Fold:
Amino acid sequence: MDFGKLSDISRVDFALPPDHPDTLPLLNRYSKRYKKPRVYIGLPVWVNKAWVGEYYPVGMKEKESLLWYGKQFNTIELNSTHYHIPGPDTIERWRNSVPQGFAFCPKFPQLISHEGTLVSALDLTATFCEAIAGLEDKLGCSFLQLPPYFGPNQLKDLEKFVQYIPESVPLAVELRHPDWFVDNVASLELFEVLEKFRVSTVLTDVAGRRDVLHMRLTTPTAMVRFVGNGLHPTDYTRIDDWVARIQVWLEAGLQELYFFVHEPDNTASPKLATYLVEQLNKVCGLDVKPPKKFVQAVQGELF
Structure:
């Protein structure tokens, strides 16, 4: 992810902001309907040659990447859908490649989110929603990444758009225009709309845009996109902060979490994701299965 990327992070305050004042009250409204929370930890890609022999078996064919990814993680930030709408055969192949309990989180196509107005793309939106509905019980929370030029003056457009999304397609929205975070009236109106139509928010934790980390949940589902810096020590302390915050949210009534770990070229993403899973299990009492490295037998050590 290039958004918010910095070459020098030495002056960045990575402290996790306090929750938005309306986040915990919202979660508390769901706490009486408590059920075991669903926790999904994943990456933004399933193909990475560096993982072969470490997180994937030696000799694995690239076309088998999703199969093995699904054995290691229980969700994927599905960015390929941002560039084209997959056909039925592709959807079926994806669905059949992963185990029960796996959740795909498709990103809305850029032709919908970045070209023209949202309401001018409702026909294409219907086509996309129909396509990803083919994932059936393996469809997680989709997300709409709005461009940096989509500002508060387009809220009515967003409101009409989210009303159009079928209830069978869970949705989260990622905002990037700075005005959403400095105009208190605009943000209040935005979050009211999202809460009204049961649309979640995306929280993006990246070095160069700390303002987008608004910490406002509008449903009992949280989606976090975490961008690390090559396993810099702050990657781990930031994860620790997130674990502590997630513990608070779970105790307050959070029902679903999607947490996606990004690293430069994503080679190191599985390692940090493993740390995240281990800390969540330890601190929050969860039982999320962590990724396991493949131990390759060395000739002469077989007997």
Q: What stands out?
A: The two ends are 45 Å apart (CA to CA).
